[in-house]
Design goal:
Family: Belongs to the DedA family.
Structural class: mainly alpha
Keywords: Cell membrane, Membrane, Transmembrane, Transmembrane helix
InterPro entries: DedA-like, VTT_dom
Membrane topology: Multi-pass membrane protein
Order of helices and strands: HHHHEHHHHHEH
Number of helices: 10
Pfam family, one: VTT_dom
Number of strands: 2
Shape: globular
Largest sheet: 2 strands, antiparallel
Length: about 220
Amino acid sequence: MGSFDPLISAGPAMVWTVVLVFVFLECAFIIGLFLPGDSMLLTAGIVMASHATGEAQVWALAVGTMIAAIAGNQVGYVVGHRTGHRLVARKNGRYINTRNLAKVTALLEKHGFLAVLVARWIPWVRTLCPMVAGAAGMDHRRYTVASTIGAIIWAPVLLLIGFYAGNVLERVSWLMPVVIGTLIAGLVIGTALGLRHYRQEMAKPAEEFDVDELAPLAVEER
């Protein structure tokens, strides 16, 4: 693997740490809005394909990501539930604004269980959905079932797509390190930019979002 040997041989432990932390944060807290979750899972799968124990590791990691996503969803729901019906948005924010919160609220009110499943595949909705569901008082048992099914489908599917794509790349000796290097560089840059955007977003003036009052506005806009 040439110059990428040290990076690749850093081992599954580094991949596990990064993946589980990112997945949990993306499902639990606002900062997750700004992390490259989907591309991180695909990259992790490809990196795992370069290890001798990759197949066993990627299946174990798939289970780990499910648990991290489920735990993150529960934390996000509790955070939203404890705020009551009022969430804090950011005035003129790119993601954390009243318009987006109203859209997610309307989606949950109209589609409920199905909305939680679909939200898993939409990055910014994936993070806002648990908090809005908690604030809106969605039945916790129903939410847990939907978010768990979504977690079981989402993270493992992306990991395994990356892993089996990596197996194909392995057949071309020079291509694998180039792809891994490019993807990891992209993740590092994406994460750095995401954290910068997060700080900029949180520096904007706060404004209250009332789940009960503003949800009808989102329905009218649809």
